[in-house]
Design goal:
alpha/beta, Rossmann fold, six-stranded mixed β-sheet, 6 helices
C-alpha cells in the first residue's frame, strides 16, 4: 500500500535514449540539452509549493534532474538506491517491443529484474522516500511511476512525460480516492 502522504513526482528530463525510444533500464545515461531545459522549467513550476526535500534515484539522469531543481529551490537531495529504474538485462539499449510486453506478463529477459518483483521494489522505494517530512519531491523513472499508478488507481493515458511535475494527494473523508494532477502553472505570490 502506498503511504497516504502528499507528494510530488518528477520523471527525469529527456536523454538521448528517450528521444530515440530506447529502453534505458539501469544503463546510466545523462540528460541531453532538452532534458536540462525541462528540469529547469520543472523547477520554476515547483517554486512556492512548500517542498521540504528531494529524494532521487541514483541514476545520472535522475540525479542531474534533481540537482537542477534543488539548485533553484535551495533544497537538499537524498539519493535512494531502490528508486533505480528496472534492470532489463540484455534488452537495455533496444526498442521496447514484444519483449517488453512479455516482460510485463512475467517472461523475464536474460539478466533482467522480474516485473512483479520490480513493482514491489518500486513501491517500497517510494514509501521509503515518503518517510521524509511532506511534501517531498521524488525524482525517478517512468517505471517507478507504474507502481504509483497501481497503488493509487490513477492511470495516465500515456507514460508519465519527462520532467512534468505531478502532485499526489492521498484520500480524505471527502474524497475517498487519490487525486493526481500535473503541475502546469507557477504559484503566483499573493494569490
Amino acid at each position: 500500500m502506498l503511504t497516504p502522504r502528499r507528494f510530488y513526482f518528477l520523471r527525469h528530463g529527456e536523454t538521448d535514449w528517450n528521444r530515440e525510444h530506447l529502453a534505458q533500464g539501469q544503463t546510466d545515461i545523462g540528460l541531453n540539452d532538452t532534458g536540462r531545459t525541462q528540469a529547469a522549467a520543472a523547477a520554476v513550476l515547483l517554486r512556492g509549493r512548500g517542498l521540504t526535500c528531494i529524494v532521487a534515484s541514483p541514476l545520472r539522469r535522475a540525479r542531474e534532474t534533481a540537482a537542477i531543481v534543488a539548485a533553484v529551490l535551495a533544497l537538499p537531495v537524498a539519493v535512494l538506491d531502490a528508486l533505480k529504474e528496472a534492470s532489463w538485462g540484455t534488452r537495455e539499449g533496444t526498442f521496447p517491443g514484444e519483449w517488453f510486453r512479455e516482460w510485463k506478463r512475467g517472461v523475464t529477459p536474460e539478466g533482467a529484474e522480474p516485473y512483479e518483483r520490480y513493482l514491489d521494489r518500486a513501491l517500497g522505494a517510494v514509501n521509503a522516500a515518503l518517510e521524509h517530512d511532506e511534501p517531498i519531491l521524488v525524482v525517478a523513472h517512468g517505471g517507478i511511476y507504474w507502481a504509483i499508478e497501481r497503488e493509487t488507481g490513477v492511470r495516465l493515458p500515456d507514460d508519465i512525460p519527462n520532467a512534468t511535475p505531478m502532485l499526489h494527494e492521498p484520500p480524505t473523508a471527502a474524497r475517498p480516492a487519490w487525486a493526481v494532477s500535473p503541475v502546469l502553472a507557477r504559484v503566483t505570490p499573493g494569490a
